[in-house]
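Bench log, entry 3. Co-assembly request; chain sequences pasted below exactly as received.
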Amino acid sequence: MNDILVGGQWRPANSTGSINAVDPRSGQTLDGDFPISNWDDCAAALEAAAQIVPALEAASPAQIALFLRTYAGNLDANSEAICAAAEKESGLPMPTRLQKVEMPRATRQLRLAADAAESEVWRNPIVDADINLASCRGPIGPVLVIGPNNFPLAFNAIAGSDFASAIAAGNPVIAKAHPSHPLTTKLMAEQAVAALATAKLPAATVQMLYHMAPEDGLRMVKSREIAAVGFTGSRTAGVALKAAADECGKPIYLEMSSVNPVFFLPSLFEQRSTDEIITELSGSCLLAAGQFCTCPNLFVLLDNEQGQQVVDGVKAQFEEQTPTVLLSGAVLGGLESAAAMLQEKGAELLAGGKPSDEEGIRFQNTLFKVTGDEFLADTDAFQTEGFGPLSLGVLAKDLDQFYAIAESIEGSLTGSVYGSAADPAAKELVSRLRRRVGRVIQNKMPTGVAVSPAMNHGGPFPATGHPGFTSVGMPTSIGRFTKLDCYDNMEDALKPDCLK
Amino acid sequence: MNDILVGGQWRPANSTGSINAVDPRSGQTLDGDFPISNWDDCAAALEAAAQIVPALEAASPAQIALFLRTYAGNLDANSEAICAAAEKESGLPMPTRLQKVEMPRATRQLRLAADAAESEVWRNPIVDADINLASCRGPIGPVLVIGPNNFPLAFNAIAGSDFASAIAAGNPVIAKAHPSHPLTTKLMAEQAVAALATAKLPAATVQMLYHMAPEDGLRMVKSREIAAVGFTGSRTAGVALKAAADECGKPIYLEMSSVNPVFFLPSLFEQRSTDEIITELSGSCLLAAGQFCTCPNLFVLLDNEQGQQVVDGVKAQFEEQTPTVLLSGAVLGGLESAAAMLQEKGAELLAGGKPSDEEGIRFQNTLFKVTGDEFLADTDAFQTEGFGPLSLGVLAKDLDQFYAIAESIEGSLTGSVYGSAADPAAKELVSRLRRRVGRVIQNKMPTGVAVSPAMNHGGPFPATGHPGFTSVGMPTSIGRFTKLDCYDNMEDALKPDCLK
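Structure output for the full assembly:
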């Protein structure tokens, strides 16, 4: 049984059982038992985090930055071993995705967080010298980070943006590994531990548990020691965690489900061929087997010749391309449910619809179609995210239906409009989508989330829990794990350096 | 029956009953029936707010600013009539408090909001030109504002900081009057209507209902049309509203209960006399009959000669000063409950403890005492806010008990430390209080919330619902009623002006 990382030590868990990862390419269980911690482990991690809060607050910005940079360097230096583990545990291709895209993204985020920590740009000091009143952002306290299945490196609970943001603001982190990739998470955690020593930060600044019973997870969220929570994953789990956090009035930052609608204005086809659009759309839908949070699960076209051509072309692409290996059996199960629900609700199945016969965990590339009338008659059902290679095309009868569909969108991470600003319908759609999504995109697919200070990877519920925050983009994403502090009539010696 | 303000019109309510205000100075019911709206009124207001969202988004920053400035000017010009109504409905002194303090505070906030709206400083644009990615804050959508009883002008749902902040960001507001001061709210609403016409903003930008059944209030919070909620009031009502908002993943900004602890370090008395401290502390406790959100309901001293002197002196002051008229019978009832609970829990009653015999709605100035051991044995009970002239003194046995008490504080708006930075205990206390409160204060009482950009009038739950936001202080307070918007690959014509 593998050790957990608690209080700065790798030590045996008080476990109630164990998990094993599965190689989704073969469906085979991998070697290595990872413990399901019981409450004693959770309580020990909480206590250790609470104990080092003062020491971590007293650490210098340079030390935090040194930790983040050293950790990034350690990850780079050990990229091959970590990516090899991640490939086995996720089925994601090692060179093209894990080594060349995800690991560089993870280490870049850590380094950008280091820059923000060092410059303290996240503190946003405001000084009213006339009345000796000053405010700034300060650390919020211990943060529980729960990572997703779909980015084993760049969104890992112990290396992703939630982690980097929380650490940059001087908060201890308790990372809960995703049960799909425990070894990957362990290998990363080892590099974090080494970097903490280099930076001389408290050893319990970073802790890691592999797994725990759901009720223990909720109890951790509610515990007094935890000040905030970062979660990326399913809507079911996210809503349960949110209810626990809300009960205590505690910030929780969620990234859950998102259908990422794409609207193709009829005027678009005066400039662009349907073939180009078919390639672009189906490529985005099937990228990484549709397992991006920003995968276009919904697209809207006018029910005319071009609209039908695009739907037919996407269907052909979906059928032609070999289904990609999924991340896990849980993803497969979710796709089966979503497909069954859409069929039950009357959506027309154009391609796929069931598990694939190929080796490993796969689902057929699946395309459904409804009319605008059908969509608008049950906007809830037809916005159910099928996480994976499943999309729904809507053929609307007029632009008014485009607008009505845009207005009906539940909170989503993104909304795309294909068409020119010269078409007045573009402005109408952008305006409606702005209210419903975090990032409005023109003439571009939503997959692809640039690591940029201008990024918003967020949006209204149920995409996230609050439309004012982003999980990607330094330094804005750091703000989630801060509280607003104010110092009134105070001697400089008692204020943080940024207010002196 | 008075008309409600819905859809830009004063019109009769669909009422299920009516309320009357009470003059707390005499306990007499005032003339004027104000309707309790049924759901039809609520639904009509929601629909009107949703309909004008696009028009309000299209309004220029100059128009929003013109509205806010004109409204402020109208309030100034009609200050006498409004303050006379507020005096009758709240019992607060007209010249010293309402005319000279509250109305200027209200109009100043509106003018500061106008400045922020005009400059668009609240938008915080971030542009990544290399990849044509840009983000900024945008309006969140219709906001429901529910105001408190204790500031009929400066925190009124139709004129306070929640209102000004929501409007500055271009959001329609539905204001729910506090049932204690319906006429005051009506008179202010009339000035808002006139100002909307001057600024040529949509007439439904500002709507006002006097009252509704609690279940209809919760239904409004949950309705799709409402994007965010601002509430100032009791913890019971706030927690119920929060549960409704949380269920839909909707931001709600609450200002609820706060005990505002004040710690007097033993070393303080080397510089300051106990007499000075007694005057300062009792003055703050009894200011406006203790009905400030930042009233010190809890103070902590060492159990030594000076500590006992201060407690004895505060007791003498509490007994000597005539109890001030309270805002309402509800405040009186809350004080009776709090006093009974504290006695039941074993706190020693030193002064007051029951309703006063003087004319009008009054409660005796009430002081309780516990030891540090007693406090730490039941930190929940001894932090129950008695909203009004009720405070609890704690005599601790050593500095470690000071620290333990500071760590046990539930989220509070403020925490004060009396003592010098030269005393190492000051740093220890400031560090602990920073984690538990929104504003840490040195050598000053918490009552007094400067309207300053550096102010934080906020704090962890249950003082508010999220420790990252302030309800006072432009432009920061505006951020509560915004969402983060991002424009990806977009032609300038489709972006807001601040990103072009």
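Chain B touches chain A through 71 residues (CB under 8 Å). Chain B is about 40% helix and 20% strand.
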